[in-house]
């Protein structure tokens, strides 16, 4: 039977919008990301995913939907909420759900993914597993993750990077782990793709770039210009 965690139930069947800006970009400011999150909620988002302690705190203070928090530290290997300390800080900043890299790669603090999840559960933290492969998903489920997601598919070298969302991995995860909510995240660029992933059994879907990253969206349009 699926988890009855009320926070997880609140996002079921809905759209979660990722509000993140990369270092050095004009929109990289907590207040700006909070405004972006508010606009997304006004448009129908049932949850927000965001990065960094300042952004988590700023967004949590402005929206009444569940906030999925991460802390990116570094750019290689495990850098999405890489240690127990990072995860604890995300929870302390106000994240309702803390997402972390669920791959088998070495973690900076020497803990295994399972040890990290256990410590967070002991502190009452709801954990989302960012997976890059089916093996990651199995590891995450065995560790007791509250949610598993396709977030890292195509970015860890285990699966080919698809043009759109990794539908094959999504379907495999949904069918293999019926008692664990499965989120689809990564390269959902159109409303049609969103509808497709939901029809394949995703608990919810996360869309970021196509909604909240104007630089990328502008590039998509500019690339189609005839010069």
TrEMBL record:
<dbReference type="InterPro" id="IPR013785">
    <property type="entry name" value="Aldolase_TIM"/>
</dbReference>
<dbReference type="GO" id="GO:0006053">
    <property type="term" value="P:N-acetylmannosamine catabolic process"/>
</dbReference>
<keyword id="KW-0413">Isomerase</keyword>
<protein>
    <recommendedName>
        <fullName>Putative N-acetylmannosamine-6-phosphate 2-epimerase</fullName>
        <ecNumber>5.1.3.9</ecNumber>
    </recommendedName>
</protein>
<dbReference type="GO" id="GO:0047465">
    <property type="term" value="F:N-acylglucosamine-6-phosphate 2-epimerase activity"/>
</dbReference>
<comment type="pathway">
    <text>Amino-sugar metabolism; N-acetylneuraminate degradation; D-fructose 6-phosphate from N-acetylneuraminate: step 3/5.</text>
</comment>
<dbReference type="GO" id="GO:0019262">
    <property type="term" value="P:N-acetylneuraminate catabolic process"/>
</dbReference>
<comment type="similarity">
    <text>Belongs to the NanE family.</text>
</comment>
<dbReference type="GO" id="GO:0005829">
    <property type="term" value="C:cytosol"/>
</dbReference>
<keyword id="KW-0119">Carbohydrate metabolism</keyword>
<dbReference type="InterPro" id="IPR011060">
    <property type="entry name" value="RibuloseP-bd_barrel"/>
</dbReference>
<dbReference type="GO" id="GO:0005975">
    <property type="term" value="P:carbohydrate metabolic process"/>
</dbReference>
<dbReference type="Pfam" id="PF04131">
    <property type="entry name" value="NanE"/>
</dbReference>
<comment type="function">
    <text>Converts N-acetylmannosamine-6-phosphate (ManNAc-6-P) to N-acetylglucosamine-6-phosphate (GlcNAc-6-P).</text>
</comment>
<dbReference type="InterPro" id="IPR007260">
    <property type="entry name" value="NanE"/>
</dbReference>
């Amino acid at each position: 039977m699926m988890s009855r965690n009320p926070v997880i139930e609140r996002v079921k069947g809905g759209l979660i919008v990722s509000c993140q800006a990369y270092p050095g970009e004009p929109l990289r400011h907590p207040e700006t990301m909070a405004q972006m999150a508010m606009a997304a909620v006004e448009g129908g988002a049932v949850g927000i995913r965001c990065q960094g302690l300042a952004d988590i705190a700023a967004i949590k203070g402005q929206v009444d939907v569940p906030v999925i928090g991460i802390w990116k530290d570094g750019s290689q290997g495990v850098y999405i909420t890489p240690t127990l300390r990072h995860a604890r800080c995300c929870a302390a900043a106000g994240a309702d759900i803390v997402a972390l890299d669920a791959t088998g790669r070495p973690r900076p603090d020497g803990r295994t993914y399972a040890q990290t999840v256990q410590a967070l559960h002991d502190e009452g933290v709801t954990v989302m597993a960012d997976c890059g492969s089916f093996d990651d998903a199995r590891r995450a489920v065995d560790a007791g993750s509250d949610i598993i997601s396709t977030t890292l598919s195509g970015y860890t070298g285990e699966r080919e990077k698809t043009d759109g969302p990794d539908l094959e991995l999504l379907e495999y995860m949904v069918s293999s782990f019926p008692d664990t909510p499965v989120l689809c995240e990564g390269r959902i660029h159109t409303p049609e793709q969103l509808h497709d992933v939901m029809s394949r059994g995703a608990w919810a879907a996360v869309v970021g770039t196509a909604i909240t990253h104007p630089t990328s969206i502008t590039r998509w349009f500019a690339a189609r210009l005839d010069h």
